[in-house]
Model the fold of this input.
Amino acid sequence: MAGGTGGVQTHRYSISVEATRRELRLCGFALLNHYLTMHQVMAEHMHLQPVELLILIATTTGNVQRALRTEALPEALRGSKSLPPELAVPMSRRAIARVTGLPTETVRRHVESMVERGILVSMPKGVRAPNRLTERWAATATLRLIESHAACTEKLIALQVIAPRPPRSANPQRA
Done:
């Protein structure tokens, strides 16, 4: 269930397809409620329509993928500091449309509006989301998102849809 590397505990879980099917309605409700809470928390600070929030999430995720590919993010890049420009990858409108499933013209229209309002920054190869982690609301909003995620996870554990896996032994015995 819990393992450790360097003093950090890790937990591994498995998903029960059988319990998910048995509790499908309650699982769906827990997940959808979590999604709506995420939207509410983020939108209340940024005043975004649902489609704009989707575009912002896709853009932010695309922007930081290069930095997060490394196995261990350097200490200097943790916390709320801006990523160095070489690690923040602009995302094209076409890529945003592909990731979100939205029509390219819809993405273009919303991105232009979001650039005008300062929500996104236009760059030669696409757009990027400015670092908002230093804004006063960011830490509180992140804590609320983590609390919502934890509540959803607890509900799924109570439904036996997800469960801790037995720990793997450090020295597997061979026959």
